[in-house]
Amino acid sequence: MAAPVPGSTRAAGTAAEPLLEVAGLKKHFPIKKGLLSRVVGQVKAVDGVSFSIARGEVLGLVGESGCGKTTAGRCILRLIEPTAGSVKFEGRELTTLDRREMRAMRRHMQIVFQDPYSSLNPRLTVGTMIGEALSIHGIARGAAARDRVAQLLTQVGLSPDHARRYPHEFSGGQRQRIGVARALSVGPKLIVADEPVSALDVSIQAQIINLLRDLQKQMKLTYLFVAHDLSVVEHISDRVAVMYLGTIAELATSETLYRTPRHPYTVSLLSAIPVPDPGRKRQRIVLQGDVPSPANPPSGCRFHPRCYMAREICAKEEPLLREVSPGHWSACHFAEQVTREGARAATGPAISPKTGS
After folding, report:
1. Is 63 in a helix, a strand, or coil?
2. I want to staple 54 with a disulfide (CB 3.0 to 4.6 A). Which of 8, 167, 175, 228 is the partner?
3. Is 192 helix (H, G, I), strand (E, B) or coil?
4. pLDDT attached to residue 6
């Protein structure tokens, strides 16, 4: 039986009608070999991800590089076709739409890419790039489109005169502002922000995060904020979903997850956040071993070869993502026993990754 989709948590404690609902999302890339390109395996980049996002909410999707968070975001927008699963936007199933229908839906769902250097066409002016979307979706043309471009550039902290310039004339932070303006041009309801600040300097990161927060309040936007830096996600997200090897390990409100994590992997990620005080040191929890290959994930819990709390059941049975407290979901057999203090006292995996004993 499929696990329930983790719902949105409001301040009043009631679940709102989700804007986006993802259930059992999978994306497997075939491994081909030989002259005949015979399929010999599958890279399970996303392997059964489920969550929902309410209107006006920011859901942070975090994890190590290679965990599948970017692939999940692109599958939701169907920039990559999912292998299986359901993606519903305002109650409408996206995975069954044809190309024409999906093109119309993309007016409501936009993306801000990670790299502000490669995501902009170097041959087009900023005004042409932003105005292109207005023309494709029939929103504005001619003088009306130019006025809209000028308004968008002002909204993201740039000058209307920048519309006549080319991408190479801007810094990385300015380019990312252009990317945000392009995403906003069609008036979307949902924006997938794919690590929008990871390629920027720390001081510029804060500016872009503040810009995204201000725009969300002004335009009542909904974000899926993909990132690997938990310290960045904390400042913008209402809820946080932690991914590991293609699956969700933990999902909770931002405040709850940072205060009382209920998965050993989350605890280790939190220990890596720098403390902004030169007189204090945070005790790092260094995970043992390497991240397993998504082409051959471990049996049972995918995290058990590196987990300091692992027991025999962890090597045999895959834990379901279950609600351990209201609005707090964890995929750990021993979620109720997870504490930061216990993690600091641990020295390595409780069982042998190879023998399971």
Report:
1. coil
2. 8
3. strand
4. 75
